[in-house]
Amino acid sequence: ADEGKGAEDGAAAPTGGVDSGDDELDGEVLLELGDDDVPPEDDDEEEGEDGVDGAGEGGAGGGEDEAADNSATVFTGHADAVYAVALNSAAEHADLALSGGGDDRGFLWRLSDGSVVAELAGHTDTIIDVAFSADGSLAATAALDGVVKVWAVPSGELVQTLEGPSEDLEWIQWHSKGNVLLAGSKDATMWMWLAQTGKCMHVFAGHEGSVICGSFTGNGKAIVTGSEDGTVRLWNPKDGTCTHVFAGKDGHTAPIVSLEVHPTKALVLTGALDGVAKLMNFAGKTVVGTLVHDKGDEGAAAGGDGDDDEDGIGLASVECVGFCRSDAHHWCATGATDGTLKVWDCSSMRLRQTMKHEAGIVSLQWDRRAPTVYTASVDCTLRSWDARTGECLSVLVGHSDMVLTLTVSYRKHFLSAGGAAGGAGGAGGAGGAGDAAGDG
């Protein structure tokens, strides 16, 4: 893979301001960072600040040979692929995890020992997303049966069944300040409910394809969605109206598959199936710039729109995106199916670093304190990277097959879902579909 070479490596010049599986899986493995793996605190002196690239290619700083399995806890309750996990951020429930999978079941379970707290049964198809409410008192599960179920924490008692969408659900998200729940559907609509009463507040219609990703803005006063139709829409949650559409030259030419809203700025980062990401300012309703993660075999001119392959065939899909949480660095990252992780400067739109897994990246998250990115890959590993230098800080292993999702707790624990074809057990564990075990 090419290492970062600045704007000439496919990044567009800024155009606006920035201020405003049939495989059966081996369960979920909680991987814990040791003292040597904790990312370094940021400092004023950093490598790569002027576009100088770090090593960034593979296993520097951590290797799979160093540990056959460094999982701390393994949950063995699921009988099929695990597609979604979440950690409870409330102090009183800090030991609780939530998961959902291809066995149509959800579970509340303990991080400390992997024991089941409650089984969440009732869905009739695969659970594809799960989430805890902001106060940690409720859990939500969304499934391909088109239904969202809300459960009490920690009892697992069913509180509400939220219905409405006519097709599969794609994602769910809680509001940051109340028990309001959003869900995007394959039927091109998004729904918003009062979770405890089940009342539908609004149905958001306007997309012409599946609403694949979406999020409340940082202040909760707007909603941003990305769709299979290639458009990004901005919505008013108070009345359900669409206030702006990023389409045409301002949108994507391929389905949008990933999206993240900046926690404090009026910025949204989107990733598409054709290897293109876009940074948008939703306050100014402008496109800040285009980030060409994968230029294709024929290459793309700086500022290109990713149209080298009209159908996106052969290009690496940008499966995950994210903003650096450090105030000192106005950076973002894109992860793709070609196994590359790229870090970009949001001010100059220059590529800073390129790092690489051995197979596609499915999820990324930035550390809250340091310029460190965590990634999950279908190469069966989790990795942490120093975004300043491109160095791989650690490789966390424990899954015997692809890792499908990743979330990071405040306490620096990884919670991931991974797999083993044919129902093989996890490293160090007994066999059986969905079964795994690890030594802490």
From TrEMBL:
Keywords: Cytoplasm, Repeat, WD repeat
CDD domains referenced in this protein's UniProt entry, alphabetically: WD40
A cellular component term, taken from the record's GO annotations: cytoplasm
Official protein name in the record: Anaphase-promoting complex subunit 4 WD40 domain-containing protein
Subcellular location: Cytoplasm
Domain of life: Eukaryota
One Pfam family recorded for the sequence: WD40
Main location: cytoplasm
InterPro entries: Quinoprotein_ADH-like_sf, WD40/YVTN_repeat-like_dom_sf, WD40_PAC1, WD40_repeat_CS, WD40_rpt, WD_repeat_multifunction
WD repeat ranges per the UniProt record: 75-119, 120-161, 162-203, 204-245, 333-354, 354-395
Residue ranges, annotated region (Disordered): 1-68
Organism field: Bicosoecida sp. CB-2014
SMART domains named among the record's database cross-references: WD40
Acidic residues: bias regions: 20-52
Biased composition range(s): Gly residues: 53-62
